From TrEMBL:
This is Lipoprotein. CDD domains: PBP2_lipoprotein_Tp32. Residues 1-28 form the signal peptide. It is found in: Membrane.
Length: 268
């Protein structure tokens, strides 16, 4: 084998290796792994996945049923971002996680919070001393109490305090009792309480229709829009910009309106 041939082969091999490494790096940069709750978040991400693929972005969707781990894993850089948080929840999360790196990019949709009962058909039938189940995370517990106050069931010190707790109740004419439970469990214990305040994503999973099955529901002015969230170090990446644009596209707005029929509302 000639020296010239050996050198040519070495150059070819090194060039091929460089091309392989460059291609691999490009592919890594164009892959996003996003955490989401099953409904509607993961469904909406699945809808935009083919569109992103045409733009050179591979979207990987990791489904979670809780509100804690997705945020933790984004901070730990095990995930690129998430799509399930609201701004009030993100604010509370940042208070308890000092090294929080999460940055909201765009609002996508609102899931109107609602009150459900398997025992009563009208709110006026709710008895004295009724047991009310609400989420146990700070952002959603405050959201639940504000919604109950808007129904006239109690009075809070400050109706605009999204972090309100039971200690902020100043009037409770029906002597309501509260059970604070993990949000995902609330549909399963609906028959064990008189009323439950349930996040729409968990309600839909449990085959509850927020518009038909609830006794009351948030109005369209809810500040709890669900966000696409990145980290500080990747928020300006081309891949995230493409995902943000896709989630705020006319096609996604139409998909949300047609699939969820008012139970989930576009926020853009």
């Amino acid at each position: 084998m000639s020296v010239l041939f050996q050198q040519s082969r070495r150059i070819f091999t090194l060039t091929g290796l460089s091309l392989f490494l460059c291609t691999s790096m490009a592919q890594a940069q164009d892959t996003l792994t996003i955490a989401a709750n099953p409904v509607p978040h993961a469904e909406i991400l699945e809808f935009v996945k083919p569109q992103l693929a045409k733009q050179g972005v591979t979207l990987k969707i990791k489904v979670f049923t809780d509100y804690i781990q997705p945020g933790v894993q984004v901070n730990e850089k095990r995930l690129d971002g998430n799509y399930y948080l609201t701004q009030p929840y993100l604010n509370e999360f940042k208070k308890s996680h000092k090294n929080d790196l999460q940055v909201p990019l765009v609002k996508v949709h609102v899931e109107p919070f609602a009150g459900y009962s398997s025992k009563y058909k009208k709110l006026s039938d709710l008895p004295i001393g009724a047991t009310i189940a609400i989420p146990n995370d700070p952002a959603n517990s405050g959201r639940a109490l504000i919604l109950l106050a808007k129904q006239g069931l109690l009075k809070l010190k400050d109706m605009n305090n999204i972090s309100a707790t039971k200690k902020d109740i100043i009037e409770n004419p029906k002597n309501l009792k509260f059970k604070e439970l993990e949000a995902a469990t609330l549909p399963r214990i609906l028959g064990q309480v008189d009323l439950a305040l349930i996040n729409t994503n968990y309600a839909i999973e449990a085959k509850l229709n927020p518009l038909k099955d609830s006794l009351f529901i948030e109005d369209a002015n809810s500040p709890y829009a669900n966000l696409l969230v990145a980290r500080e170090d990747n928020k300006n990446s081309p891949a995230f910009k493409k995902l943000a644009a896709a989630l705020n596209s006319p096609e996604v707005k139409k998909f949300i309106q047609e699939r969820y029929k008012g139970a989930v509302v576009p926020a853009f």
